[in-house]
Design brief:
The chain has 10 helices and 2 strands, in the order ααβααβαααααα. 70% of the residues lie in helices and 2% in strands.
């Protein structure tokens, strides 16, 4: 798979010279450059995968898969976006491929940021449990809808950025997010804990 880029605003182009130099060194087969790129971006890749999938037994393998894809596709990097943004797209493709092949074995869910906004220890416990209900429903959701929703809602990325990561139009991405929300809203009608979590997320978003 070759990751194709789309143009971004000049304001979003960062570390252009450094990116190009590092890419050229990687393409040239410099192992030190490969290690440098992995050290620079691996935490970001892991965090994105964690928000999409929750923690699971395949996480380390998935991070490795992302960088295998990155190193295979680096020759197509043209510097029209930052290297980090380009790697985000590789991450999204790997996550989607994984979701389509098999359901993840969920061990934990990324609830810390949401729970930290709760007003009391009791609320934090309830929100963590409700987030587990959310990821249980996500495991049953169409992979494309899940990816769009988690990138936009859980990873807090703008719809336009999610569209670029998924190689989709903004309209298609908005539709996917809407359909995912509708599915969760239907589930929440029979799951009070999930309903409370979705309400909390909605209120938090409105306050930002």
């Amino acid at each position: 798979m070759v990751i194709r880029e789309r143009s971004e605003s000049p304001l979003s182009l960062v570390r252009t010279h450094e990116d190009r130099s590092l890419v050229d060194r990687c393409i040239g087969g410099e192992r030190a450059a490969h290690r440098e790129l992995f050290r620079r971006e691996s935490r970001r890749v892991h965090a994105t995968l964690f928000r999409i999938l929750g923690s699971n037994l395949s996480m380390d393998d998935l991070v490795q898969d992302v960088f295998i894809e990155v190193f295979k596709s680096l020759a197509s990097f043209r510097g029209e976006s930052s290297l980090s943004t380009w790697i985000d797209r590789c991450t999204a493709h790997v996550a989607l491929s994984y979701l389509r092949k098999k359901r993840p074995r969920l061990l934990d869910v990324p609830t810390e940021e949401t729970a930290s906004k709760a007003s009391s220890p009791e609320d934090r416990v309830l929100l963590k449990e409700a987030a587990r209900h959310l990821y249980a429903e996500l495991d049953r959701m169409d992979p494309t809808l899940r990816l769009a929703l988690t990138l936009h809602v859980v990873d807090d990325r703008p719809v336009a950025e999610v569209a670029r990561m998924m190689d989709a139009s903004v309209v298609a991405t908005k539709t996917r997010v809407w359909r995912a929300r509708q599915h969760l809203a239907k589930c929440a009608r029979r799951d009070p804990a999930l309903a409370a979590f979705l309400s909390h997320v909605s209120e938090s978003s409105e306050g930002e």
